[in-house]
Amino acid sequence: MALTPAQLSQWEEEGYLVLPSFFSQAETKEMLDRTHALLSSFDPTTHPLTRFTTAADGPNAHVGDEYFLNSGDKIRFFLEPGAVTPATATEPARLNVPADRSVNKIGHALLLDPVFGKYTLGDRMTEVAKSLGAHKSARVLQSMVICKQPRIGGEVPCHNDSTFLYTDPPSAVGCWIALEDCTPQNGCLSFLPGSHKTARISSRFVRASGGGTTFEPVPCVKPNEEDWDALPGWKEAPCTAGTMVLIHGSVMHRSPPNPSNRTRIIYTFHMVDGECVYDEKNWLQPTPEMPFAKLF
Ligand SMILES: O=C(O)CCC(=O)C(=O)O
Question: Which of 180, 195, 106, 198 is nearest to 143 (CA)?
Fold first, then answer.
C-alpha cells in the first residue's frame, strides 16, 4: 500500500500520519491473541521485576538495568511501576496485581515472534516504508507491545523518538499499531503537529559509562529551549483497532496514564536508515547474533 500524495503532504506538515484500517480485523486479532498468549506465559517468579520507568517517574528514573539493556535481541517483559510493591528491609519486592496485568511492555525484539515478525517485515510494510521516502535502506529495531494496563498503565512523557534511537543524521520513524481501540480515556497518543520541523535532536538516551542509562547532549547541536508540553496546539489521536500511525523521529508526542478499566494494547516498532551512522552509545545495540532486520 503506497502512500498517496495527500498523505505524504500531511506527513510532511504534521510529522505523523494516521492510517485507519491498515490491518484487517482478523490480522489485528491475531496480534492481540498472540499478545495475550505471551502475557499468559509471563512467569514473575523467574523475573527480576524490572519496571519500565521513565522521566515521568522522577529525574534520572529511566530504566537501565542489565535486563533492559540486553533486551534488544530478546522478548522480555517490563512491568508497570505501579504493579510492583518495592522491597523493604524485611520483604522482597512483589507484584500487587495478577502477572498478566502487571506488564507494561514486551520487547525489544518482538519481531522474533512469528506473528509479529510476519507483519513487521511483510510486503505491505515495505511498500509503505518505501513510499514514505524517509530511508534509503530501512532497518527495524525496538519492536514491542505496550499494554497500558487498566488503572496502573503509566504515562509516556513528551518525547521524540530520535532522542532514543539516535543516528547521524537523525532518521528514526515509528510504526505504531493499535491492537485495541485507543481513546482519551485509556491513554491514546497526542501529538504536537509540526514540531518535527523545529525540534532539534539535541540530546540522546545512552548507556552511562558507570552503568545504567542517561541523557547526553549531542555535540554541536543547540539545546531546545521550548517547554513542548506547555505549548498550545497538542492534538489527541484516538483511533480504532487496526490503525497504524507513522511517527516522525523528531515530532513531539506523549500519552497519559490509563485510569480506565480497559487495557490499551498496541504494537510498535521503529525504523532507522541503515545508511546513517547508528550511535554506538545508544541504549539499544545490535548484536552479532541479531543485527537490525533489513526491511528494504
Ligand atoms: O504507546 C504509547 O503510549 C507511546 C509510544 C511512543 O511514544 C513511541 O513508541 O514512541
Answer: 106
- The answer for residues whose C-beta is within 8 angstroms of residue 276's C-beta and 6 or more apart is 167, 168, 169, 170, 171
Residue count of the chain: 296
CA of 88 to the centre of ligand 1 (A): 32
Ligand 1 centroid to Cα of residue 149, in Å, is: 14
Shortest-distance Cα residue to atom 3 of ligand 1: 255
Q: Domains of the chain (ranges plus CATH)? A: 5-83+95-294 (2.60.120.620)
How many CA atoms does the CB half-sphere of 57 hold within 13 Å?
A: 15
Instruction: Write out pLDDT tens, residues 5-35.
Output: 999 999 999 999 999 999 999 999 999 999 9
- Ligand 1, atom nearest to 254 Cα: 7
pLDDT at 106: 98
Q: Which residue in 139, 142, 129, 181 sits closest to 17, CA to CA? A: 129
- Kindly give the distance from the C-alpha atom of residue 6 to the centroid of ligand 1, in angstroms, as a whole number: 25
Q: Pull the grid cell for residue 252.
A: 513531539
Report the C-alpha gap between 213 and 292 in whole angstroms. 21
